[in-house]
Specification:
Elements (H helix, E strand, L loop, with lengths): L1 E8 L8 H14 L4 E5 L5 H11 L2 E8 L1 H13 L9 E6 L6 H4 L6 H10 L2 E11 L4 E4 L2 E5 H12 L5 H13 L3 E7 L2 E7 L1 E5 L3 E2 L3 E2 L11 E6 L4 H6 L1 H6 L8 E6 L1 E6 L5 E4 L2 E5 L2 E13 L5
Parallel strand pairs: 1-2, 1-3, 3-4, 4-18
Antiparallel strand pairs: 5-6, 5-18, 7-10, 7-16, 8-9, 8-15, 10-13, 11-12, 13-14, 15-18, 16-17
Helix pairs in contact: 2-3, 6-7
Bound molecules: adenosine-5'-triphosphate (ATP).
GO molecular function: ATP binding; kinase activity; metal ion binding
Protein name: Diacylglycerol kinase family lipid kinase
Cofactor: Mg(2+)
Length: about 300
């Protein structure tokens, strides 16, 4: 088995300065005597195939260079392969993306030099991974936060508006405020069935989504439980007046929000087919079943976590 790192870099993640950043990354890795091979993605979801080839070749340590989408696809490649136990694999992240929500839970700064410093120390945590199954039997894994409803709509809009650059986030938020209609979800878990008008239902492993917002309560990334947040009759107006609480995490105490911990949950939207997002990637629409795999993959994290 190779002790060396295998780098999967997304050259289009984040801003457009990739070649300059890649030079800096190579220099810093060499300075720290970190041994690595590398490959660049050439198309969307290419990470999945690249990570599987690397594991087949004997690599067990992977560095994801990019944003949350790149990391999500690396995680999916690892969960879908059959060459090694997933708990024998370690992922580190050098963040380049614009959102980069996963790193925030573990105090990893959005900074190339500091991220490489963290990799050289190699403190790891064995983190849970979520599994989503849509009604057409499509399986996706997630390492951060997934959900359906309003959050899925924003991710969908963002995809179509991304060509407008950084203003796309503002535009999709606005589109959501103006056009998103909540509907009735039937939510089934443990011995409960909740049927309610629902803005969105969130499934959390880590804390942050939507560029630093916190919808999940008392997150533990290794306890084998999904942190469920059901935003019920919450209006768009409620979101606007509570904008500060969305970032501080206090929003979970709002009277129209309920939180639970569970190992498996099914959400069946009753009339509409809302968009489903996982780690900020659009994965489908409509009904969904979510499970969790306890301590599935090792991740390199900050020493202060
Ligand atoms: N070479 C490529 N060409 C086109 N798309 C790619 C390529 N490599 C990866 N992708 C896709 O780009 C998507 C977005 O990447 P990612 O989320 O990492 O960057 P970002 O959108 O800039 O960052 P963030 O999600 O943190 O805001 C992923 O779905 C990934 O599969």
């Amino acid at each position: 088995m190779s002790k060396s790192w295998f780098i999967i870099a997304n050259p289009i993640a984040g801003n457009r300065k990739f070649s300059k950043q890649w030079k800096e990354i190579k220099q810093l890795l060499n300075n720290k005597n970190i041994d690595y091979s590398f490959v660049f993605t050439q198309f969307s979801k290419h990470e999945i195939e690249l990570v599987q080839n690397a594991i087949q070749q004997g690599f067990r340590n992977i560095i994801s260079i990019g944003g949350d989408g790149t990391l999500h696809n690396v995680v999916n490649g690892i969960m879908l392969q059959r060459y090694a136990k997933t708990s024998d694999i370690t992922i580190a992240v050098i963040p380049l993306g614009t959102g980069n929500d996963w790193i925030k839970t573990y105090n990893i700064p959005n900074n190339i030099e500091k991220a490489i410093e963290i990799i050289s120390k190699k403190k790891t945590i064995q983190q849970d991974i979520g599994v989503l199954e849509t009604s057409d039997k499509n399986i996706s894994y997630f390492n951060n936060v997934a959900g359906l409803g309003y959050d899925g709509y924003i991710v969908y809009k963002l995809k179509t508006l991304k060509r407008f650059g950084s203003i796309a986030y503002l535009l999709s938020g606005l589109a959501g405020l103006l056009f998103y209609k909540k509907s009735v979800f039937k939510i089934i878990f443990d011995d409960k069935i909740i049927e309610t008008n629902c803005l969105m239902t969130i499934f959390g492993i880590c804390k942050f989504s939507g560029g630093g917002m916190q919808f999940t309560k008392s997150v533990n990334t290794t306890d084998g439980f999904l942190d469920i947040t059901i935003a019920k009759n919450l209006t768009i107006f409620d979101l606007i007046i509570n904008i500060k609480k969305l970032y501080s995490g206090e929003i979970v105490h709002h009277k129209k929000i309920e939180t639970f911990k569970t190992k498996e949950i099914t959400v069946i939207p009753q009339i509409t087919k809302p968009f489903i997002q996982a780690d900020g990637e659009l994965i489908g629409t409509g009904k969904i079943n979510v499970k969790i795999i306890e301590k599935a993959i090792n991740f390199v994290i900050h020493s202060t976590y």
